[in-house]
Amino acid sequence: MTDRPLIAVLGASGFVGSAVLTALADRPVTVRAVSRRSAVAPEPAAADFEVVTADLTETGAVAAAVEGADAVINLVLNTAGWRSADGDGTAARVNLGVVRDLVEVARAGTGPRVVVFAGSASQVGRAQRMPVDGTEPDHPETGYDRQKAAAEALLDRASADGILRGVTLRLPTVFGPARPGGGDDRGVVSTMIRRALAGEPLTMWHDGTIQRELLYVDDAASAFVAALDHADALVCRHWPLGSRRGEPVGDLFRTIAALVAEETGRPPVPVVSVAPPASARQTDFHSLVVDASAFTAVTGWRAQVDLLHGLRRTVRSLSETRLDLGADLVPGEHPGRVGLGEGDRGPVPIRQDRLDVGGNGQAERVVER
């Protein structure tokens, strides 16, 4: 028997999930790492780790995954569903259904006392002012964002009813190196780094002045740990994360091209504007910058890794991965080939990666952050 708090991390083998495991590793807690593909427990660690494989869309799977847990961090999502229609039942089962199951387990008196949920900064839609700070009204414009908003509302109602204490952290574009055994970053930053490493142009759907909020993966992970520590003060509200510094996409891509050139010794690849595809959304042409000062005031959290340092780390990691795979750093076939353009969660991959967690595959696939 142990009196250590039990924290269940759902989506533990994903890109953000594996970083959260590392952030919890130095704590005197027990971490139950739940995912469809076995998560890798960080070593050395003061925490005890239980690695559990489960498909959380199956009946009873959520209840079993969180049994005895004091707190849950829910990082499960269907990433392929972010451009899908509202009627995509599989995406809704993942993005909304898992939260519904968590609430029902808590309502029965056998679930966790605290749930920290990964929302999306894009839920706000096209905000009339920048930066967003969580006080503006939401106008979600995609099926993905509407599902996230519905899940957040479920948590808020359950919190108001005293069933649990729910906290939503709204993530902007998260980037950084993948951890061993963890999911790859399939967002716009790593996608464009891979293209630059392959010698291909970096393409935009606009003139490059649209701004994006970028958050290094370690900073995202530390925010979830901070939310656990201050759940009582954060309950029943959403908290957007960021650094209040929006980066113009054109500047971001040119920086990526320069850093890759520095890494490879080759000339920088060009950054070019192209016509948007028919699938482009209005939010793709609207800036998103986040002011997280409210969250900082409660928790003391703030982003620690500056953009240039984070980009350099990511370039180095992806370059080493390509060399390990035998890539030649010249144009041609390479992992992660994508369609043109960028969005809040990055371009949509053409190549389907894998059936298990951490990929960015077809709409019916369940993956984790």
UniProtKB/TrEMBL annotation:
InterPro entries: Epimerase_deHydtase, Lipid_A_modif_metabolic_enz, NAD(P)-bd_dom_sf. Residues 329-369 are annotated as: Disordered. It comes from the Bacteria. The gene is evdS14. Residues 7-234 form the NAD-dependent epimerase/dehydratase domain. Transmembrane segments: none annotated. It holds the Pfam family Epimerase. Gene3D superfamilies: NAD(P)-binding Rossmann-like Domain. This is NAD-dependent epimerase/dehydratase family protein.
